[in-house]
Every structure is written in C-alpha cells, then in structure tokens.
Amino acid sequence: MNKTRISIFVVALLVVAAMLAFVFKRNAAPQPDGQMPELTVGIAPYQDLAMLVNAPSLGFDAKSGIRLRLVTMAWEDILPAVASAGRTVDVGFGSYVEYLTKYARMNEGSSDPVIYVQPLYVYKGGGFIALNSEIKPFTGAELNQPAAMARLRGYRIGAQKQSLYDMMIYSVAQRAGILPAELKVVDMPMNDGLLALQSGSLDITAGGLTQVSEARKRGGGLILSMEDAGFADITGFICLRSVLEKKRPQIEALIRVWFQSVDYVYGDMKTRSTESLAYLRKNAATKYTYEEYVEALSQEYLPRSLTELHDQMLAPGSRFDFVRIGKSINGYLVANKIVATPALIPTPLLERD
Asked: Can you tell me the distance from the alpha carbon of 217 to that of 213, in angstroms, rounded to the nearest whole number?
C-alpha cells in the first residue's frame, strides 16, 4: 500500500470516527423537555414540600433526565390521588405514621398496593410540655435509663388518642420498661391540654410549636422533646407498585432531585428561599414571611443528601432510626388493636449517593 492509499485510508477512518462520535453525542445529550420522561408529583403547599418547586425552575429535573410536573393539592388528597393508578399523579408525599396505620385497609384485596418508597425528612418539633417548675425536663441520657424514667408513671399525661404524640409516649415508655397500662394518659387535643395544665388537672401534655411557645410565655416549657426521644413522623415518597415497576429510573431521579433542591435552599436560605416563598404565598393558607418560614423549618430535619439521610435516619441506631421508629409505631398500633398485624417496614429505594 503506497503513501497516497494510506493517507486516504486514515482520512476515511477519521471521518467515520467523527461521525460515530457525533451520533453518540447526540443520542447521549439531554432531550428537549417534551421528549423527556414525565413524572407527575402531588405536592401540598407546606414549607417543607415547597423545596421541590425549585427543581423545574433551576433545571435540576432536566439535568437528571426527567420532566417534573408538580400538581398542588390538599395533603389529605395526595394518598387517594396516588392510589388512582396514575390517573392523577404518579408519586406523592406521605406520612410514615399514616402509611403504617392505613396500610392494611387501603391495600386490602389490591394486587397493586400503595408503597412507601423513600423516606426524605422528619418532623421533630414539639413533644411534652409542663407549666409546673417542679417537673424537670428529661435529658437525652435519661431516656435510656429506666430508673430515671420511673417518674413518668406518676404524671397525668395529655395526648390525643392515636396521635403522633400518643405513639411517642408509648415509645418512650417502652424503652424505659414501662408498660402502657402503667401510664396515666388522658385522651385530649393539644389546645385543651394546655388549658388542663393551667387548671392543674394534667401534669404534662403534648404540644407542638404553638403550645411550646405558649408554655414558655407562662413560665413552663418543653420537658420531653421529640428530638431527644428520637421519635418523629417521617415524610417520604409514596406510589403504586405498578408505577414503581414502570418508572423506577424516573423515581430514582426524583429522589436525587429532591435532595438537590433541599441542599440548594439550605446553601443560602436568605436568597434561595424566594421560589419556595412565592409558591407558598400563592397556594398556602399561611402567607409566610421569611422569618416564619425559617421558624417552621426549624421544627423539622431535612437531610441535604442521601448519605446524610443514611447516617441520620437509615443506619441502625441512628438519630431517627427509620426501622426502629417503624417497629415502635407498629407495636403501638397492634397493642391498641388499631391493626391486627404489623405492616411490613418499607425498604428505601435509595440509601446513599
């Protein structure tokens, strides 16, 4: 082969290689929005869920190869929408407590159950409050010392039946070796509980952000925090099993997009909460100021990455151990005859980055 033929052959190879590279690059590049797999997500206008509205505007979804369509609805409408076999939404947000409580009933006789696919964050605000200065707060260390927790048996306790706080006091007592029957728990809404503290008919009672603030104004405060107890309601993504089977790559992308959105906002809360606040002012009953928004989020713990989620919620013995909390909820539900058998503890779709 002479030099001329060699040169022609080399040029031909380079042309073919360039064409293949062009074709590969074109096929690998993100497709226009209209051609991307779409995922419809049900979202309620709450301060935490509003993190996700940053994803479409900043292109987090497109960079992950999906097109998010967010549908705003009331929180109580999300579960029925998810159960509608994709006719309304593909994925929604759901409470861990609500899921375990309703699992058997909502999936009875169904070949396509609603499943809890991924924990995302926790509500950790509030706990139990007292106005009597002689009732000292329980420390985090005392919660693992049965002798230190024994005084819980002597208190008249207010907690609404089947509420998160009723489950919390059950969990705390269980860890301390106190039987549920040994607790003096009165079924009472939180606002009524605060009045009962004032009248002296209760010693401690369940309280959220509002009740804790009122108790502090009146010389009392939080004596048993949800955070110290490591007990919280965990919000996560829910969907039908059939939707997960059909759209698993898109749902995995959605999970990563969620953590990108949270990390983005927390990276500079003052300047990066604009989109979330605009969404809330348009859709939420509460028209948050920036300060109110920050205060509301302080009652929650939102991991900023999958690795943080694993270390703080999924690892055995972690701060908000997903499995431990689930088993405690199941124990409460069975002990109180709310369900006949415990629901299966969900397996998270993704655990690490």
From this structure: 6
Residue 122, both tokens: 């926790």
- Identify the domain containing residue 249 by its residue range: 35-123+233-335
Sign of CA dihedral 188, 193, 195, 201: positive
Render the burial of 173-182: b for 16+ CB within 10 Å, e for the rest. bbbbebeeee
Residue 207 is assigned to a structural domain of this protein: yes
Pairing mode, strands 156-158 and 204-207 = parallel
Per-residue model confidence (pLDDT) at position 85: 65
User: Which conformational region is residue 46 in: left (phi greater than 0), alpha (psi within -120 to 50 degrees), or beta?
Assistant: beta
DSSP for 193-230, please give it: HHHHHHHTS-SEEEE-HHHHHHHHHTT-EEEEEHHHHT
Number of domains in the chain: 2
Mean pLDDT on 320-324: 95
79 and 145 within one domain: no
pLDDT digit string, tens, across residues 282-309? 999 988 999 999 999 998 999 999 999 9
| Domain co-membership, 203 together with 249 | no
3-state secondary structure of 243: helix
pTM higher than 0.70 = yes
**Cβ distance 127 to 225 under 8 Å?**
yes
Residues found in the chain: 353
Least confident of 4-8, 34-38, 251-255, 331-335: 4-8
- The predicted pLDDT at position 86 comes to 59
Closest C-alpha among 344, 267, 345, 314 to residue 121: 314
**CA-wise closest residue to 236 among 250, 249, 253, 255:** 255
Burial of 304 (0-12, 13-18, 19+ CB in 10 A): middle
Task: Report the relative pairing of strands 127-130 and 204-207 from DSSP bridges.
Answer: antiparallel
Count how many Cα atoms sit within 13 Å of the Cα of residue 306 in the half-sphere of its side chain: 14
* 245 and 325 part of one domain: yes
Q: Which of the four pLDDT bands, split at 50, 70 and 90, describes residue 61?
A: very high
